[in-house]
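Bench notes, afternoon.
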Amino acid sequence: LLFVHVDEPKAAKNRLHLDFRPDHQAAEVERLERLGATRADIGQGEQSWVVLVDPEGNEFCVLGSLPSSHQAGRGS
């Protein structure tokens, strides 16, 4: 992915939504929070994903890890 900086501030809902599925969700959420992301409550309830907002106000989700049976062959 290539992210290009634009000078205009965010004015509406994201036109693109990113979902990330790390190997370790909690560790990745912690890392992203240290980098400046904050948790967002968008009414997701008890879902397994965590919604974060970057410093520019863009929402994205960090999904739970896949069960180990689905991870065979990842990275190939």
